[in-house]
Amino acid sequence: MPFIIVPTPLVMQAARLLNFTNQALADHLGVSRRTVQRWLVSGTGPQMQHAVKLACTVYPRHEALARELAIHGGTTVEALGLVPPRPPPPPAAPAPRAAPVPPPAPAARSEHAEAVLCAAANAMDVSPARIAPAVVAAFKRALALGVDVPSLVALLEPPKPAASPQARPAG
C-alpha cells in the first residue's frame, strides 16, 4: 500500500466520535501510543490502511466522516462493503416490435373467379357470362389504382338500414 498520510484532524475527529483515548486509538489501529502522539505533535496522520480501519469503525455513527476517511484510504465505503453499491440503471426499454406482416394472399384459382362472378351475377340477376366483363373491368381498375379489395368493398357496399322505431299502437 502506498505511503500516503491521512490528515490528523480527520483521525482525531474519528477518535473523539468513538470516545478513544490516545491509547485506545493506538490499540485499535495496531500502533504504539507514542506513534499517535507523534501524529498529534507533527500534524502528520496515519497511513492509508489506518484510515480504512477507522472508516469501518466510524461508519455506523457518522457516514460522512467514514466516507472521507475511506477516500483518504484510497477506497470507498461501497468498496469496503459498508454500503451496498448503487444498483445499475434499469435496462433500456426494448424497441417496439414492428407489426407482423400478414402472409400474402393465396393466388387466385379458377374456382375463386367463378365464385366472384356468380356472386356478382346473383346480385344483378344476370348470368355470370353477362357480368364477367364488368367484373374484370372493375378489378383491373382497382389494380391500376393500387387499392386493396377489402377497403374497396367496404366503400362500395350500400349502408345498412337504420333500425326503424317500432310503431306505437294508438291509444
Descriptive account of the structure:
- There is one protein chain.
- With 171 residues, the chain is an all-alpha fold.
- Among the domains are: 8-72, 434 Repressor (Amino-terminal Domain); 110-156.
- The protein is 53% helix and 0% strand.
- It has helices at residues 8-17, 22-29, 33-42, 48-58, 63-72, 110-124, 128-145, 149-156.
- Helix 2 (22-29) crosses helix 3, helix 4 (48-58) packs antiparallel against helix 5 and helix 6 crosses helix 7 (128-145).
- The longest helix is centred in the C-terminal third of the chain and has 18 residues, at 128-145.
- The termini are far apart.
- The mean pLDDT is 84.
